């Protein structure tokens, strides 16, 4: 459930939000469902943003990294050794890594064999000289 971000949701709607074309293609490529939080409903946001203060206070505070690789290595270690082993009230006091291993891991699908390629979408106009935009391509005549 992503936030109702303007770059991902073209038109918010409770029942049928209009998802940005490129965002929808990315989700389809990776087999994900985009179900954005309701617009202008702050009660939905804690579900999405609740972990952020924990990450900020537990992982980022007081640390300095020399490179992106160093930060990534430290983040993986922290996620496995600290965050994944804490008791989590919404999970009935269970550790997130234990719940992930018992419930979630089996439901994961492998990544597609090819990475996602972003398409460029634009609206072309045909001029009176039958040229498309500013290119030398000509539109087919009817």
From TrEMBL:
Coiled-coil zones: none
Residue span, Integrase catalytic domain: 1-104
InterPro entries per record: Integrase_cat-core (IPR001584)
Superkingdom, natural source: Bacteria
GO term, biological process aspect, one: DNA integration
Name assigned to this protein: Integrase catalytic region
Taxonomic source organism: Streptomyces bottropensis ATCC 25435
